[in-house]
Amino acid sequence: MTTTINPYAERVDYGRLRFLHRINPLAKLAAPIPAMVLLILARDVATPVVFFLLGVVLLLIGAHLRPRVLLLVLVLLPLLAGVLSLSFGLWADSSKLPDSTVLLQVGDYQFTTAAWMLGLATSTRLTAIIALSLVAGLTSTGTDLVRAMVQQLRVPYRIGYTALAAFRFVPRFGHELEVIRAAHRVRGMAGGRGPIAGIRRYLGYVVPLLAGAIRHAERVALAMDSRAFGAHPQRTERYVVPFRLRDLVFILLFWAATAAAFVLIPTLELP
Amino acid sequence: MTDTPAPLPLRVDSVRIRHDESTAYTPDGVSFTVSPGEVLLILGPSGSGKSTLALALNGLIPHAIPAELQGTVTVAGANTTETTVGHLSETVSMVFQDPDSQIVTGTLLDEVAFGPENLLVPKAQVLQRAERALRRVGLWERRGENPDTLSGGGRQRLAIACALALGSPVIVLDEPTANLDPVGIEEVYAALAELVAEGDHAIVLVEHNLDAALDLVDRVLVIDRDGHLVLDGPARQTLTENVDRLVELGVWLPVSTLAALRLRTAGIPVDPLPLTPSELTEALNRVELPAPPSTVSAISTMEAAITVTDLNVTRGRSKVLHGVSLDIASGDFLAIVGENGAGKTTLLQAIAGVVRPPRSAVSINGIDPATADVRALSRAIGFVFQNPEHQFIRNTVAEELAHGLEIQHLPQAEIDDAVERMLHRFGLTAHRHQHPFLLSGGQKRRLSVGTALIAGAPVLALDEPTFGQDRERAAELLDMLAQLNADGTTVIVVTHDMQLVADYSSHVAVMREGRLLATDTTAAVLAGDLLEQAGLRHPPLARAMRALRDESWRGIARSADLP
């Protein structure tokens, strides 16, 4: 089983070297946006590889990673890129590809270098975007993100903190769904295989789940009202998530690196 | 009582409330005041509007709940209809029944700080208040933890701390222990007792568990079924002087009081009328007790209907049941008890095939739920889930009942006949075309029992059938189970309610940490210390009797066994 993500985990400071934990979550989200747009548009392999490496290097230096996560970043992501390159390559329309070396032939079908390179371009783009999202994802907490959105983006706190409270619903509904499924199974609703029966089965879970959810949400709302939630336009913030000069510097440096890649990578061709 | 210069924290004046979907006003014309430091208990049969009244005390009615409020509720001099719930919360705070639905943040400290933060209390003071509140309920050391790690009782103490941190002089608690196990109830009342001892908060309590509450209460209000205020006075005096009236009104009296009344009728002078187990013990120790009535212990001679042999169940990577072996005789009423997380529900689900047990670990009259199909299983055992809504799969009450027979491929005439009988038996004939979700709580429960039994299963398994229900609805269900049991159905229940165990079950299986500590007759379990070993408590009557000087009376645990 994977470790469950706790959206309420407190921010931990791992010292100056692990600087990513000290950057404002909004800065970590804003910094890679131009690079991600560029990646969506890029068609070569070099650009995604460069940005993938940028993401990984940033994480290795600036983030405190547990061994399991380190494994994900260093082994599983490249592996994913490799596997996906083959499967994306298989889907490539060979009639539109230039002639190239045939790597594998099964009957009429030819798997060529060109097809593989096309698959590789797609798969590396995907993994590069994942790596860049992990820069923010692995070093920020849900609460800090909500606080930053309320404090800097002026998102109304009623929305932000209600969203955070809603995270509590997720495991609860997971458990409830499990019970409902068991209940329907012992009552003999499992009947039939195949997608249609499956969809019907799931529709049957919706009503009890929704009924429970609405009741629960009403209770939570009453409890929050009773504790003065929404009484004033503002609320006391015990944790300030500041937006400092270093956050700006982080964004600008990231954008500069993105611009440099745009200019310097010779194979980068945009449609 | 009236020597306070400031306006009273809470004044209720001829209040009538009607929910939008209902026609009756309950409560109807209730007036009372709450003075600083006073502990007030609101009693009434179900449907009298106690909880509705509680919701009006901090303005949730009419601000957040669609209901019509007549009369006035005045909180610290302000009319609740003209102030927001947020501002009212500075004077009146609330603790609700369900601990889970009151938690909104990720740590205990954040949770307690949530209220004061909303009130724009400066940061340093928020922390001060949070620390004070958490210390008062004994949770300060755990401030960094996620509230999910607390037990039910712990979460309810946290809710009390949250109310304290708001700094309000009045705390309203609406059925705060209805969802808790015996130890959780004890925890919550220990925390409340400390508050009462300090005397700086007025407390308004809506509670059916009088045995735990009465030690703390100064004053009781009694509302009748029509929502009228019928009694208001000092707790002890009001209860003891109006016992007959209260019984007539359908108010649940403490178990100890009911036992004493029964003993008085039998000619044993119990005086003064006790309200708590320790008072009953004292009163009985003062009199010469006759020989106790001989209790006919139901020793089942029937052969085992269900055998469980070395049952192990793992969930994910953790083992939740460790080698459980158990025989349940045909006609038994077995209660499975244990703390939260002891594996009670898992055991019940494995027996009934709701979670698949390993092969040949369970046999229900020769059927192995590990391999049996739904049809065979539903003829062998019926399962009632904690929340009846979870098991409803059809669109009308009649279809819901018919479903269990349709999967048996019985002829239509036979199905119609059986459905008709079930509808009649469970009082649902008038609701046959209704959607099961639109039934009342008690009707839903009856329907779920009906669906479990319709395929002719001789065994009925129920998971926490009285959880979160008021006393009256719980009693209605239990009497129905007792009737089924008397007619020959083997009943297995998982429960936290020890008085239920004492009054209804013939046998008890005690679980702790995934292991079965013992199975024995209810009388034997209540006479020994197994319950304490399992982290549970004896029910009130057993507690009173076990402390008696007269040894021959110590084994009595159920009201039915009293003379």
Would you tell me the structural class of the helices and strands of chain B? Answer: alpha/beta
- How many strand units of chain A? 2
Arrangement of strands in the largest sheet of chain B: 6-7-8-3-9-10
How many helical stretches of chain A? 10
Number of domains of chain A: 2
Q: Order of strands in the sheet with the most strands of chain A?
A: 1-2
The N- to C-terminal Cα distance of chain B equals: 43 Å
Number of spatially distinct domains of chain B: 2
Which two protein chains have the largest interface (Cβ within 8 Å of the partner's Cβ), and how many residues from each? A-B, 50 and 66 residues
Please tell me how large the radius of gyration of chain A is.
24 Å
Query: Biggest β-sheet of chain B, characterized?
Result: 6 strands, mixed
Overall, the morphology of chain A is: flat
Explain how this protein is built.
The complex is a heterodimer of chains A (271) and B (563). Chain A is mainly α. Chain A has 2 domains: 19-151 and 241-264, no CATH class; 157-226, no CATH class. In chain A, 64% of the residues lie in helices and 3% in strands. Chain A has 10 helices and 2 strands, in the order ααααββαααααα. Chain A has helices spanning 25-30, 33-41, 46-62, 67-91, 113-137, 142-151, 157-166, 169-186, 194-226, 245-264; strands at 102-106, 109-112. The longest helix of chain A is centred in the last third of the chain and has 33 residues, at 194-226. Chain A is flat and about 70 Å long. The two termini of chain A are 42 Å apart. Chain B folds into 2 domains: 10-253, P-loop containing nucleotide triphosphate hydrolases (Rossmann fold, 3-Layer(aba) Sandwich), CATH 3.40.50; 304-386 and 458-527, P-loop containing nucleotide triphosphate hydrolases (Rossmann fold), CATH 3.40.50.300. Chain B is globular and about 75 Å long. Helix content of chain B is 36%, strand content 21%. In chain B, helix 12 (277-286) runs parallel beside helix 22. Chain B is built from 22 helices and 19 strands. In chain B, a hairpin with a 2-residue loop joins strand 4 (67-75) and strand 5 (78-79). At the A-B interface, helix 7, helix 8 and helix 9 of A face helix 3, helix 4, helix 5 and helix 14 of B.
